[in-house]
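Q: Got a minute? One more chain.
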Amino acid sequence: MINIQKFLEEFKEQYVDNEATGMTMESEFKSFSSWDSLTAISLLAEIKYRYNVDIEEDDLNRCSRVADVYHLIEKKIAHA
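A: Always. Here it is, folded:
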């Protein structure tokens, strides 16, 4: 099981400015102004590196909250 606080801190690191400091697991991560396709690619690469799971871009697009991404990763790990 992934530590939620650590996951949230790592998730915040994908944003290039301080905008993400107030981000929580319930935050809609795509609503932050610095979210763009490069951030999405960076996040997918970071997930692959840290958790050794492949998340498809379509799966990420279906997520709206940080918690959705967390649960998607947990699900992929459980089915690996």
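A: The domain at 4-14+26-78 is CATH 1.10.1200.10 (Non-ribosomal Peptide Synthetase Peptidyl Carrier Protein; Chain A).
Q: Perfect, thanks.
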